[in-house]
Amino acid sequence: MNTLFKRSISKVAAGVFAAASLIAAAPAAANTSANAASNASSAADITQTIDEGKAEGLASGDPRFRQLFASWTALDRAGPGSPVTEQPVVSVPSRMPLAGAKLTSGYGMRNHPVLRRRARHKGVDLAAPTGTPVYATADGIIERADWFSSYGLYISIDHGSDLETRYAHMSKLAVAAGDTVRKGDVIGYVGSTGRSTGPHLHYEVRLDGVAVNPIPYMVETEAQVALSDDTQLTGRGGQ
Question: What positions belong to coiled-coil segments (predicted)?
């Protein structure tokens, strides 16, 4: 991971994505082409993409995340002596799925590298050598771990409350459907299976089944940690 990217991650994590601001502002709102500029270059700097994703993520509110944060706050204020009521259980993705990866294709409309036409990219492509470990970006349960059409070797993780992450084009899987994983667990390894031009990870975040910009979910924040813990809770591809 280059120095510029490390510096950007530290700056964003320390200030811009602070606590309740992110939850109230909703990463889910950033579901437009936040990194269109990065698509113009196959070697775009992920720092720019994070900044753009942040700007859109903070632009407007999202009812689901306000509700989840309110539920966590109510549980925290209730204390151990209060009656136990059912709370939404969710673990918010809040880390990079790869270490030292290079962004090669961003979220949103792009020139498809295989189909050779304009198409909406449902996630981001992170290039890395074949065999690079792929990490779960939040706690959850493995929904699927097998070959899935153009995704190739593929994993989907249910993080609760209709929040899901997807990982595609892997060379090998390290988990099976039904497994419980923790944030940071190795779930597979980078490859180029399915519709792919070279070794990379295609990474998606979905809310209620709809793909949203993953960039705001790739930096850990105080609000995400609170919501997760206190409720216990060069290649490119064709998606």
Answer: none
